[in-house]
Amino acid sequence: MRRPRATSYKVLIAICCTAWIAANGRLSAQAGRLVLTESGRHVMPGHVLVRGGALSPRGDASLFWSGDTVWIASTRHAEARAVCPERVRAPLGAAFVSTPAAGGAPVIEIIDGGMAGADEPQIIRFSDDQCRAIAWSGPDPSLPTARDATGWVSASGTGLGGPNGIPTPRASLVRRDGTPFSPSGVDLPIAWSDSAAISVSSGPRGIIVSSRHFPFAWSAAADGRDRTVAGRIPASNETYYASDPWVGTGVFTLDSGFVQVLADLASDRRHLVFYDSSGAFRRRRVIDVPFGILDTAPDRRQLLALRRTDRVEILTYEWTWQPHRARK
Amino acid sequence: MLTKRISNWMIAAAIILGVAALTPNNAQAQDTGIDFCVSCGMFSGECDEGGGGVHDICVWGEWGGVEWCISWGRQWCNPRIGFDDVGADGALLRERTFASSASQGLEAQDSPTEHVRDCRSRIVARAYSSDEAEDMRRRTESIVI
């Protein structure tokens, strides 16, 4: 008589747990698949060549930039508008510094390299609907750069370091004033130490440095601490990726795990790669669309992406975790 | 009589010549607008490595009875620096930097040469039909990894 009652309790508990997980969407990445669902879109002319992008802290706006213009796109306006067009010449990076109360103008910083041979690099700060420029001081502004809550962090490749005196390619992260971002450099198993072969992105847990070439290794460095998480494509894939012109376009933080886009330079093929929160490679999805990720906001499960079709589309995705289907 | 007729002709000719002298040389061009800014056509830049093509913008108008012209020109030269880069969508881009010289102001000539990043051409380029584009949008509305 007691067994049916115990069974029904278990079923009830299982139903409640499933419902709670579904309602809160807190299914772990290891247990589920990442589902990106498009939730917003800004359309730009097809000739715009987007280099990067950033989500606002509140998620109600985004920045994206080309080789000569920075735009801001808001959920409240259908069209994106240029930021400080009278000052911006050659943007190398842009970020929201802060977002005031609803209705207020955001504060934006842009690293501008200027016209080569004509202008000095500068930071253009957009605040209170005004654009002010201050001279850039610090590392070469053309180095891969990302901004965290404290300020800009630049990554450069060096051939220094390594065990037993053997030079090991390594990326070092420094702030504008020259302060090291992390006590030691970030080791990347790459065959060279070219800064152009490195991408950087920022996340809530620090800066992620990634190699643009196989094995597309990456490392997440936390401010003031040594390396925390690292990942790479398994060596068994070398024949596939090394024989074709594949390139990694950055690694971005999720609320559980990391996502990376690999692009075939000879076609529209893209691989969306998922790593778990320990940095272990888990799976990838193949799509045949020119597609890239620009930024993520793990706390809101929001992702900023770029799609090029007959025009350039700046996309906002929301993500959820979907349980694995049991295999029969 | 003949003297008076000659005198009338001379007066008429003087009036015509006077009007012609007071009228801008480009009166006919003024009717068509942009050709009035002849300084753009006279604009010249020096290209060390060859090249050509003058990109002109001319603006003219009248302010307080004074006609004015602002011309701006840019002489594009052959690419001086070329390198490859990858866009955020993973497309390979070829970026070329052109040397250029610019002019701004009334009939102004060249300013010192500057480098202007201008042309980026896509190496992997495809033109998608609207059907293809719609299919690409549909395939990436939702992505499961």
Question: Would you kindly provide a written description of the structure presented here, covering whatever features stand out?
Answer:
In chain A, a hairpin with a 6-residue loop joins strand 15 (about 205-210) and strand 16. A 4-stranded antiparallel sheet of chain A has the order 1-24-23-22, with no helix packed on it. Chain A has a 4-stranded antiparallel sheet with strand order 2-3-4-5, with no helix packed on it. The longest helix of chain A is centred in the N-terminal third of the chain and has 23 residues, at about 1-25. The model of chain A is unreliable at about 20-25 (pLDDT under 50). Chain A is globular and about 60 Å long. Chain A is built from 2 helices and 24 strands. Chain A is mainly beta and about 325 residues long. The two termini of chain A are about 35 Å apart. Chain B is α+β, with helices and mostly antiparallel strands and about 140 residues long. Chain B has 2 domains: about 1-30; about 35-140, no CATH class. Chain B is about 30% helix and about 40% strand. Chain B contains 4 helices and 5 strands; from the N terminus they run αααββββαβ. Chain B has a 4-stranded antiparallel sheet. In chain B, strand 1 and strand 2 form a beta hairpin. Chain B is elongated. The termini of chain B are far apart. In chain B, about 20% of the residues are buried. At the A-B interface, strand 1, strand 19, strand 20, strand 21 and strand 22 of A face strand 3, strand 4, helix 4 and strand 5 of B. Strand 1 (about 30-45) of chain A pairs antiparallel with strand 5 (about 140-145) of chain B, so a sheet runs across the interface.
